[in-house]
């Protein structure tokens, strides 16, 4: 059963995941609270059982991992393209239909700036200034990639 065939289910699943920051926000005070995390997982298990009757915690963790891995891959693809110095028209659009739904994870997925061991040489990730695309719907992708 693919993600595309059940968009409304997965939209609700992602929304429920977002409503439980103890599962994804490392800055959340409950992130290390096993009881709260188990209760949040139980909510996601119950939601999953609507579509997958045999769903359990392992199933939910695998689905979350799959969603996040695909999201990270898209971010890497976009960032790699931007670092290569391509023009705005060549920055790849995300192919995941749920990319914007997972935008709340962006703070969790961005890599930290690298620090060089050579004195006075700090390496940082930066977004080159791009022109904002003309027309079209304002999405998280456009706001992230084409912010001024």
The proportion of residues forming helix, as a percent range, comes to 40-55%
Shape: globular
What's the total count of β strands?
Answer: 0
Strand content: under 5%
User: Kindly state the mean pLDDT as a whole number?
Assistant: 80
How many domains comprise the coordinates?
1
Rg (C-alpha, Å): 18 Å
Number of helices: 5
Element order: H for helix, E for strand = HHHHH
Domain MADF: 12-110
Pfam families: MADF_DNA_bdg
InterPro entries: MADF-dom
Protein name: MADF domain-containing protein
Structure description:
It is a single chain. This protein has 148 residues and is mainly alpha-helical. The protein has one domain (4-145). It is 43% helix and 0% strand. It has 5 helices and no strands. It has helices at residues 7-18, 34-48, 57-83, 106-109, 140-145. Helix 1 (7-18) packs antiparallel against helix 2 (34-48) and helix 2 (34-48) crosses helix 3 (57-83). The radius of gyration is 18 Å and the shape is globular. It starts with 6 loop residues before the first helix and ends with a helix.
Summarize the structure.
The chain starts with 6 loop residues before the first helix and ends with a helix. By secondary structure, the protein is mainly alpha-helical.
